[in-house]
Design brief:
Blueprint (H helix, E strand, L loop, with lengths): L18 H9 L4 H4 L3 E11 L2 E10 L8 E7 L3 H8 L3 H11 L11 E7 L3 E7 L7 E2 L8 H24 L9 H25 L8 H9 L1 H8 L4 E4 L8 E4 L2 E4 L6 E4 L1 H11 L2 H21 L7 H11 L1 H13 L5 H17 L11
Helix pairs in contact: 5-10, 6-7, 6-12, 9-11, 9-13, 12-13
Length: about 375
């Protein structure tokens, strides 16, 4: 049994999720009506392994309707490759901390937290509601969004970015988002950048235009310098992994999933990542300027547009290097995303980088 005496809600294997465990989750709810609930039936619906192990549960109970009956549980990945790449930067513990400390004040749609626990050396367990119970539709990596969907996501991101630009400036409690764990992750990314980029380019083959290969390898060799350049502007809270598979949709409004990569960063980085991965290239080319202009206007409305549009556009182009790298590295590591979705988002990100000559926007000391 891997449950710890210190916190029996932390489990490391899907088969340790039981009705007894679910009752413990219910017993620690803050709302009195939920806390009195008794579990009547417990069933594992599905298990999916990627960067984490994701388990969907059906939990019948006699409690109020405010307590979900479909749960979504995130545990450390059962894939050794994914676990090796996510363990040191403590991605799941970061998401646990996000739900405990930041989710209540973040002004965008996100799942309801039922339990979030992490203990160094023991593991992490996150329990949230399964958004499908409320007739929401989870996104899939590789989905191609429409202009109206993209506009809605941009609006939500603008509101979130503006809100936290002001908070980050005056509240030192947000500095853990740029603390040792994030620095360790950046260091690990830099140390592995060259071999992973090389392997990813080989595996992607003709999906990545050959004209980008030399620039991509130069980027990998200069990654530390480039990350410093991309982190030089006013920070805010950024999702940092905003692709279609990390969204859900309810009544045409987006919600945001998978906060493992959350950090302090430049606001426009989320927009670059989103537009590069979520839109077909022809749709992005047609609507990109309008979406960026709308985003800048919304930042202005919320008093957070700290640079002119032309500079924002230049920073947008520079930040396109990261979604390209992220998708190529995902392919190189393997076991973190469905292959067809991964390849499609590599194609989109590569064309975005090519369209904007992104690598020429970055510093280079080679």
């Amino acid at each position: 049994m891997t449950n710890t005496r210190e916190n029996p809600l932390i489990v490391t294997q899907p088969d340790h999720l039981t009705a007894h465990w679910a009752q413990r989750v219910v017993n620690q709810q803050a709302i009195p009506e939920q806390k009195k609930t008794k579990i009547q039936h417990f069933e594992v619906i599905s298990v999916d392994v990627g960067t984490t192990t994701r388990v969907r549960l059906k939990v019948e109970h006699d409690g109020p309707t405010t307590l979900p009956k479909r749960w979504f549980v995130k545990l450390p990945s059962l894939s050794w490759r994914a676990k090796a790449i996510t363990a040191l930067p403590r991605l799941l513990p970061t998401e646990v901390k996000f739900y405990k400390e930041l989710a209540p004040v973040i002004p965008i749609n996100k799942p309801q937290m039922l339990a979030a626990h992490s203990r160094f050396g023991k593991g992490s367990t996150l329990v949230i509601n399964d958004v499908t119970e409320a007739n929401a539709l989870p996104g899939r990596a590789g989905d191609a969004l429409t202009f109206n969907q993209a506009r809605a996501v941009v609006e939500h991101l603008a509101r979130c970015h503006a809100h936290f630009i002001h908070k980050v400036k005056r509240d030192p409690g947000f500095q853990w988002l740029a603390g040792p764990v994030r620095r360790l992750e950046d260091g690990l990314g830099t140390a592995l950048a060259v071999p992973l980029m090389k392997r990813g380019l080989q595996l992607a083959g003709d999906i990545i235009p050959h004209s980008l290969h030399k620039s991509a390898m130069e980027y990998a060799r200069n990654r530390k310098l480039i990350m410093q350049f991309l982190s030089a502007k006013t920070p805010t809270l950024v999702h940092h992994d905003c692709h279609p598979g990390n969204l859900f949709w309810h009544n045409d409004e987006p919600g945001f999933l998978d906060w493992q990569m959350v950090r302090l960063g430049e606001a426009i980085s989320d927009i670059s990542y989103f537009l590069a991965t979520a839109l077909l290239p022809e749709v992005r080319r047609q609507h990109e300027t309008a979406l960026l202009s709308h985003y800048h206007e919304l930042l202005s409305v919320h008093g957070a547009a700290e640079i002119e549009f032309n500079e924002l556009y230049q920073r947008f182009k520079a930040h396109l290097c990261y979604p390209f790298e992220a998708m190529v590295v995902t392919l190189a590591v393997g076991g973190m995303m469905q292959l067809d979705s991964n390849l499609e988002m590599i194609r989109r990100a590569a064309l975005a980088a090519q369209d904007h000559d992104t690598f020429a926007c970055l510093p280079n000391k080679s």
